[in-house]
From TrEMBL:
It comes from Uruburuella suis. Its cofactor is pyridoxal 5'-phosphate. It is an enzyme of class 4 (lyase). Substrate binds at R268, R304, Y308, E335, Y362. Pathway: Amino-acid biosynthesis; L-lysine biosynthesis via DAP pathway; L-lysine from DL-2,6-diaminopimelate: step 1/1. The keyword Ligase does not apply. The modification N6-(pyridoxal phosphate)lysine is found at K52. Pfam families: Orn_Arg_deC_N, Orn_DAP_Arg_deC. This is Diaminopimelate decarboxylase. Residues 22-360 form the Orn/DAP/Arg decarboxylase 2 C-terminal domain. Pyridoxal 5'-phosphate binds at G231, E265, P266, G267, R268, Y362. Specifically catalyzes the decarboxylation of meso-diaminopimelate (meso-DAP) to L-lysine. The active site is at C334 (proton donor). Residues 31-271 form the Orn/DAP/Arg decarboxylase 2 N-terminal domain.
Length: 406
């Protein structure tokens, strides 16, 4: 049977919009968002979608309409949230390297809070707020030193990582923040890593953070909110992923009767499996040792296999009754690292369309122009309706900011 996104076949989408093409399912996005709000309903959390996973404006607008807040890590992401009609008052600003200009932009926009990652950043936010005659709401990102048991490049909560303030230094950092007149301490935050397939590190991090909340309360520093960072992992292949309801129950038990507002910053689990990258087979090449399925998508469209050796499931959109071959699925980029999959068995031939699954998160948002490839178009599917939500880039757009003046 031909593969579909909602009621539209991928064959039709590839025919209408061309390839490579990211396709997003509105119902899958809605379902993923509601999975969080319903699992955590007892705690009425503010779900702040992590824009870095996919910043497409239509997607942000859709989440805003569902009541989502946003987790941003740059002025650019704030500009996207505002352009999509998102509420700055539900937006939290994370990241280790906020510039003065970004802090000013966020303060003027009226963000909900800054997740602060170091003492110099506290001082900088205080100084910018003083200059603007404002008070900046802040939360400290504390590194709970918990092993997230994920790929080292996306593990962020260990002592060796650049993120957050060391757990042992947290009380002193809060005391320092309390002396800065243009800051208002509102919360505490942590984020231990991404693509988490085990619940225990998440629960352990929550326990450690709540322990700190209690210690700070004794010192007279009362926090209003606790932010547990990113969401759970998703199924790319055959991994088992944590049960959201179980996570919610554990958090509810740990928070108990403390009057703490809960915030979450899921990215991947809200969008990852709502997206598919369609690509056309250009050639089948029988190499000396291996076969290669050369497609028109490449590492610039989906960097995850090259960067993390990540697995993305690949299927032929129109199943064919031909002999399957075992092959690497590779792009046209001049790098050995330009692969989308190694050693897959696929029944396809030149001209066929392949669906690369789980491409809603960290795919389009990590795309580049390497080899002067235009960034791919993005399409939004709602039932039987498909809309272009990002045009395919043109060569003119790529070169627009350059001059050949020498
Ligand atoms: N909050 C903070 C502060 C983060 O750093 C991240 C992700 C999130 C939230 C969202 O986490 P999620 O719910 O998506 O797990 N490019 C990598 C993933 C990098 C994640 C970085 N931080 C990948 O493709 O796997």
């Amino acid at each position: 049977m031909t593969l579909h996104c909602e009621n539209i076949s991928f064959t039709d989408l590839a025919g209408q919009f061309g390839t490579p093409l990211y396709v997003y399912s509105q119902s899958a996005l809605t379902e993923a968002f509601c999975a969080y709000t319903s699992a955590f309903s007892a705690l009425s959390p503010l779900v702040c979608y992590a824009v870095k996973a996919n910043g497409n404006l239509s997607l942000l607008k859709h989440f805003a309409a569902l009541g989502s807040g946003f987790d941003i890590v740059s002025g650019g992401e704030l500009a996207r949230v505002l352009a999509a009609g998102g509420d700055a008052g539900k937006t939290i600003f994370s990241g280790v390297g906020k510039s003065e200009a970004e802090i000013e932009f966020a303060l003027n926009a009226g963000v909900l809070c800054f997740n602060v990652e170091s003492l110099p950043e506290l001082d900088r936010i205080n100084a910018v707020a003083a200059r603007l005659n404002q008070t900046a709401p802040i939360s400290l990102r504390i590194n709970p030193d918990v092993d997230a048991k994920t790929h080292p490049y996306i593990s962020t909560g260990l002592k060796a990582n650049k993120f957050g303030i060391a757990y042992a230094d947290a009380p002193a950092a809060y005391r320092h923040a309390a002396t800065l007149p243009h800051l208002r301490i509102t919360g505490i935050d942590c984020h231990i890593g991404s693509q988490l397939t085990d619940l225990s590190p998440l629960v352990e991090a929550c326990e450690r953070i709540v322990l700190l909340v209690d210690q700070l309360a004794v010192e007279g520093i009362a926090l209003e909110h606790i932010d547990l960072g990113g969401g759970i992992g998703i199924v790319y292949n055959n991994e088992s992923v944590p049960d959201l309801a179980g996570y919610a129950r554990a958090v509810d038990t740990i928070i108990g009767t403390r009057p703490l507002k809960l915030m979450l910053e899921p990215g991947r689990s809200l969008v990852g499996n709502a997206g598919t990258l369609l690509t056309k087979v250009e050639y089948i090449k029988h190499g000396e040792e291996k076969n290669f399925i050369i497609v028109d998508a490449a590492m610039n469209d989906l960097m995850r296999p090259a960067l993390y050796e990540a697995y993305h499931h690949i299927e032929a959109v129109e199943p064919k009754n031909i002999a399957p071959i075992s092959a690497d699925v590779v792009g046209p980029i001049c790098e050995t690292g330009d692969f989308l999959a190694h050693n897959r068995t696929l029944a396809c031939e030149a001209g066929d369309i392949l669906a690369i699954r789980s491409a809603g998160a960290y795919a389009a948002s990590m795309a580049s122009n390497y080899n002067t490839r235009n960034r791919a178009a993005e399409v939004w599917v709602n039932g039987s309706q498909a809309r272009l939500v990002r045009q395919r880039e043109s060569f003119e757009q790529q070169m627009a900011n350059e001059t050949a003046c020498l």
